[in-house]
Amino acid sequence: MAKKVVIVGGGTAGWMTASYLKAAFADRVDVTLVESGKVGTIGVGEATFSDIRHFFEFLDLREEDWMPACNATYKLAVRFENWREPGHHFYHPFEQVRTVEGFPLTDWWLQNRPSDRFDKDCFVLASLCDAERSPRHLDGSMFENDYVDGSDNLHRMTMSEHQGKTQFPYAYHFEAALLAKFLTGYAVDRGAKHLIDDVRHVALDDRGWVSHVVTAEHGEIHGDLFIDCTGFRAVLLNQALGEPFISFQDTLPNDSAVALQVPQDMFERGIRPCTTATAQEAGWIWTIPLFNRIGTGYVYAKDYCSPEEAERTLREFVGPAGADAEANHIRMRIGRSRNSWVNNCVAIGLSSGFVEPLESTGIFFIHHAIEQLVRHFPDQAWNPVHRDQYNSAVANVQEGIREFLVLHYLSAARSDTRYWRDTKTRRVPDALAERIEQWKVQLPDSESIMPYYHGLPPMSYMCILLGGGAIPLRPSPALGLVDDSLAREEFQLIADKARTLVDKLPNQYEYFASLRR
Fold it and tell me: Which residue, 23, 225, 341, 468, shows the most beta carbons closer than 10 Å to its own?
């Protein structure tokens, strides 16, 4: 086994990796993390997939252990505002779609149209988001007995192993820098070495493998396996080893962002249990509510908007509360490294690949890569099969998410600016174009989405198609021959259940104030 692991770069990617490796291998693997004291954490990775719970479960961390320390809140969905037209919104919730008479309830919605809100008609969580409710009662119990912690026997299972078995109803928002700080303590307490130093040089041996890194204060740091967590710079993988980078800019043009951290009285404002993506003239603005502040930013394409225009738009959107907030301008590298594992170097996080943060995939990419590294961890023989399987799994996830994000723009009916009109004429990956033609007459199912694991079930595709409004959709013709009485009953059950939960559940601020006490 490659027993000495050197992680170059800290932040969320570095410390998630260090913590997971120590939880997986304990003292059987020596972990050293080298991070510069001059490089800060990019604050766009504050929202997650619901699968992130498996990360914390693997580390044996309970919510009360880490959430207060990271100003964390619950995320039940992504809320899309103004993607169809001004004033319109819809949710992509963390909830499985129900089936009636062998057909998804979304198909029945297309057939019956109980209202103009597919999300509220088909999913309970949409109403909880509108009402800003917590998914847990003040005593900590879940709103749904099916989700009692531990009842699904998924402890220490990977994301790909669990997909399709359950859909956990929420993810998290958290302050990325505080999570990195929390995990620093976790990993160091379990034996990881932490060096604050600058890497001056990456030394390669005669084979082209990384021999060691040379630091300013600690000299040479040798290891067996080197993990590149240096962000968009990809100091080891792209710079030292010369691995090519594959750009996604031809299909996903957003390449820039400006972010603000806005202190707010969250008791007065309220904490909406979802990430909000609000369409703008040249991109979209994210809003992530934490316990003590709002994280917000404008993701845009520089071909349509200057940094100055973007910052002005964002500040106008936030209002007076953000007047004194410092703007963080970010140039995003959209795409992926051709291979994320080359020789004895594995890139995790932004150095591996990144798509715009529209569906909070940054933390998901990190988590998935770490799981795959543990699964394919090399021994002294360095069998290339482990490397190749890792690279295939990581590439499939990144390409799958790319398709899903492209679908967001193709399905959005908004067309009031050049940016939004161009989203309908930009190149579409061939496989996605074929799939869309199928989805026009049959909503997505497990057979018609990308066949490789990429973290997204067919329900996710249904929500984007139904919410965006630009792609014409039809219900299955068979529904015209099936009695719809059970479907109508199911719509009513969802409405009744949502109404009851809204009345009983506390709001998010009440819940997290109680948790802190």
Answer: 341
